[in-house]
Amino acid sequence: MKQLSAWSFTKAPVKFKIPTNDNLVPIRLDIEIDGQRLRDAFTWNPSDPDTEVVLFAKRTVKDLKLPPAFVTQIAQSIQSQLAEFRSYEGQEMFTGEKVVPIKLDLRVNHTLIKDQFLWDLNNFESDPEEFARNFCKDVGIEDPEVGPAIAIAIREQLYEIAIQSVASARESRMHKKGRRGFEHFSASKAGGAGVDLVKLYGNKTSVVRKRREWDVYEPIVDLLSNEEVDALEAREERSAR
Questions:
Q1: Burial, 79: exposed, middle or buried (Cβ in 10 Å; 0-12, 13-18, 19+)?
Q2: In the predicted model, is pLDDT for residue 96 greater than 70?
Q3: What's the rounded Cα separation, in Å, for the pair 56 and 148?
Q4: Distance of alpha carbon 78 from alpha carbon 44, whole angstroms
């Protein structure tokens, strides 16, 4: 998220929470050992006991037939990401009438997705998984791995925004006049003259699109050929090195 204008501190702060209905932590793994690489992304309930992490790592290694050394690396990666999340628990963050931009730019197998929309942070009942399911249905995506990848991408951005909100709340306490944070769009201002916001996909999502930008920001979904996928993966591998 690029930084633009100030957060609006019109409501009392609340305890840190990712602005979704279930507060799941997005976890991303990228581990390479002896030439074998594991990439994965999923959500984790921070209330689950820590013993579940090691059990999950062992099951993953067994199911994917990975070397035993992956168990420790998987467990440590998950535990470090959970520790970071828990370091924010109990801290204050500001909610309020805020709408922020969410961008999708990802490839899952042969499917390339690009989209941009606004997300209402004040709706703590929002459901990225429901949005992703409806998105895939509406644009005709059949690959079952695409929906979860979209939901993870949304959750990662909302998590980053929540972290920035904690920092903004901390700065607000230090400087009563506040300091500039990152871009948000007031829902009341966005609904003013010349901008017609339309909510999509039911009550459990917080998605809005500017009507005047539909042609510019409508979803882009491409199905790539095997040759195009191979070329992209080769380029990603070179970049990783």
A1: middle
A2: no
A3: 18
A4: 9
Q: How far apart are CA 48 and CA 71, in angstroms?
A: 18
Strand partners for 117: 102
Return the structure tokens found at 85.
């999340």
**220-223 and 111-120 strand pairing:** antiparallel
Instruction: State mean pLDDT over 184-190.
Output: 41
Q: What is the dihedral of CA 190, 196, 201, 203, to 10 degrees?
A: 60
CB contact set of 70 (below 8 Å; sequence gap of 6+):
31, 33, 36, 38, 57, 60, 61
Sign, CA torsion 216/148/68/57: positive
Other CB atoms within 10 Å distance of the CB of residue 18: 26
pLDDT band at 142 (very low <50, low <70, confident <90, very high): very high
The more confidently predicted of residues 123 and 107 is 107
Q: How far apart are CA 62 and CA 56, in angstroms?
A: 10
**Is the per-residue pLDDT at 217 higher than 90?**
no
In the predicted model, what is the mean pLDDT of the chain? Answer: 80
Instruction: Give the pair of three-digit tokens for residue 45.
Output: 């309930």
Q: What is the largest CA-CA distance in the chain?
A: 61
- Local structure of residue 97 (DSSP, 8 states): S
